[in-house]
Every structure is written in structure tokens, then in C-alpha cells.
Amino acid sequence: MDFYFVYSSGGGAGDWNGVNRMWNEFMPNYFKENTLIKFGDIFFNHKGLNSLLKKSNWSKIYNAREWIVDRTNDNSLYNTKNLIMDVGTTKIVNYIDSKFPNLSTNEIIEKFDSIIDSEKILERYCKFILDSNIHNAVTFDIPNPFKVRNQSGNPIRNIFNDKKCKSLLIDKCVKYANFTYHNIDDESRLLTILPAFLQDDEINQYLSRLDYKSTKLAIGALIDMNNEEFVNSILNIDKILNLKSFKKVHFLGCGGLSKAKLIKATLGNHSNFSVDNTTAFNRSIDGSKNGNSSLKEDQSCYIDYLNKKQFRIKPQSKEEILKIHFATPNELKLFSNQEMIVIINSILEHQSDNSSKETYDNRAKLIMHNFDVFRYNAE
Question: Which domain of life is it from (predicted)?
């Protein structure tokens, strides 16, 4: 089972500048081949701004591969076959919710649909797929922004918890998938979105409404499920569809290593399965540069290859973390013992009001380490 690096998954400019500077020398070739980018990260603003569209990008960027190559200077990304383009439509839902906070769930869905139509977003998405030579493009859905959290870690709003809106959500998924198919005329490029909350005959009914036969799936709506719901959902989907028979099945935002383990334990570790998750990135950049390194939420995490434990990086834990890293077999480690000493020391500098280009570079290396831990345990 492949584990994807989610490019532009959060964080600020300092962190992404660090990732881009470190990409060529330190990013494992595995992740250069298995990278996921989001259409919405390129073209949609964060909520709170007056315009949904990033007007400069909308008018100037026409090729996703050129966009990421320009940022990383990695020409190999022109040719990678496994690049996934996800839609990033959570930003549209959050934009609507921030501008129109009193809309009902069904009104939010219709507002989303009207924006898609009026801004010709699907037309642009289809052209972007073709111009960028994307072989794995997720079809549009209207996601629940449950995973978008405030600074205290609590969900901002679980908009689509209302089961009465399910039918309308599926109607839109069908509409968007069929539009995308007819405009690129190549089913093999599509990862058809399959919301994991669908039950039994709903799954076949949904797929039967498509104007093509899906050979690749992207299973979404997993992030807000507990373990029992998660297992029951993927078992039900597999019972109906036999997932190992598809060319590719990608579990979008699967929810961390525990969910990746559940996929393997429940369905088997199949070569056509892949997952993505941003925990490895988010924990790496938890460390604040404001001098509050005594606070837990202001400390980045080192994740352990063997035990999958997260260790907050603070002066008191430094020796324990390095001891764990030293004891990890060399063939597993992305960074040597000496390199990790430098990384941990630099993280502590960053968290002590001494941030610099060097500390951002080492935060980028920590991101790569933590992603490599996830990769090792997902494979």
C-alpha cells in the first residue's frame, strides 16, 4: 500500500519555502513518485477573504506539473505517473460558510453548485487535468469541513452531519463526475469519488448513475469516522465492489497510521491501495517560534519508526528522542544519527524565538522524516 506526500497541506510560507529548498536533496524518491496536490490549494483562497479565487493564479497557472516544478526545481515531476490531483473543495465550503453563516445544509450545497457553475471551475479543472497530463484526478465532491479546526483543536462546524442532505450531495457528485468524464473523454484518468458514508444499495445506485464504468476509486469522508465506523464502512464497500479488482483505490485523508493499519488488517495489503494523511506534516510544524516551547501545542513532534509514538521535541525530551533514533536500524532511517542531532537542535532553536532560514530547513527535514515513518508503516 502506497503512502502519499501531500504537497501544500497546510502551514505557512516559511515551512513550504523550507520544503522546496530541501526537496531535491532530501525528499525520498518514493515521495517524488507518490505526491498528491490539491487543485484548491493552487486556485482557492482561505476563508475570510473577499474572493474565493486566487485571481493571479487563476489567470497565470495552467499546468500543475509546471507549478510544482517551479517551486521544487525537481524536473522529475514532469514525468511521474502516480501524481494524484485532489480537488481541495473544502475551501469552497468554508468560504460559503464564512460568507453565508445562516444557510441550511441544502442551501450550502446549492450555493456550492452555483459557484462551480458561475466561475466555470469544473471547466478549468478538466483543462488542468489534460494540460498537466494527470493520470489520477479525483472527481469533485462537496466535503464536510469537519477536519478544519480552530486553534483549540475543535471542529469549527460539522456542516453535513444532517443525513437528510445525503441524497443532494450524491446528486452533485454524479453531476460533477459525469461532467469531468465528458470533458476529458478518458475514464482511465479519473479517481471517482466514493463517499464512505454510502450504504449497501446506495453504492451501486451511485455508480450506476455515472456515464462511465469506474476502474479507479477515491474513497472519501473517512476522517470523521471512529475506528468501528471506519471498519464497517470499508468492509461494506469491499463486499459490494471487491476493491482489489480496481486498478487503483485511494483512501483520501485516511486518518493516520491507525487507520492505515485497519485498512491492511481488514482488507489486506494490496498493491492497488494507497492512502494519504497530513498528520506527519502537521505534527512537524506544531512548534511555535514565539518562545513558548514549554507549551505542548508549541512543540513539534518526532515520530518513531518502530513504535509509531509521537515525542514532543523539548529540552527535556531531546536525549530520549536521540536515543530512540540511534537505536533505529540504519536501513530504515532517512537521516543519520548526526543529521538528526542537528535537526533536533535546530527545532529547539526555532521554538526558542530563534527562527531562521536554517531552522525552517530543518523543520522541512523533520517533515520528511515523519512522512517516511508513515510510509514505512503503511507499506
Answer: Bacteria
Torsion on CA atoms 129, 131, 133, 134, rounded to nearest 10: -20
Averages of pLDDT over runs of 10 residues in the chain (379 residues) are 87 91 97 96 86 95 97 96 95 90 90 97 98 97 64 52 80 97 96 92 95 96 85 95 97 83 92 92 87 70 94 95 98 98 97 94 97 92
Please give the pLDDT value at position 175: 98
Region 34-277: CATH code: 3.20.20
Q: Domain boundaries in the chain?
A: 34-277, 292-378
pLDDT tens digits, 69-87: 999 999 999 999 999 999 9
The two counts, helices (H) then strands (E), for the chain are: 16, 10
Per-residue pLDDT of 233-254, as tens digits, reads: 999 999 999 999 999 999 998 7
CA dist 44 and 56 (Å) reads 11
What is the rounded distance in angstroms from the CA atom of residue 238 to the CA atom of residue 222? 15
* Residue 188: DSSP 8-state: G
Query: How many residues are listed for the chain in this entry?
Result: 379
- SS3 state at 219: strand
Q: What is each CA distance from 262 to 108, 259, 304, in whole angstroms?
A: 33, 5, 19
CB 186 within 8 A of CB 211: no
Q: How far apart are CA 202 and CA 195, in angstroms?
A: 10
With beta carbons less than 8 A apart as the criterion, state whether 293 and 314 touch. Answer: yes
∠ CA 88-282-219, nearest 5°, is 40
Residues 6+ apart with CB under 8 A from 128: 39, 62, 63, 64, 85, 134
Give how far Cα 90 sits from Cα of 140, 141, 190, 364, 378, Å. 11, 9, 19, 25, 25
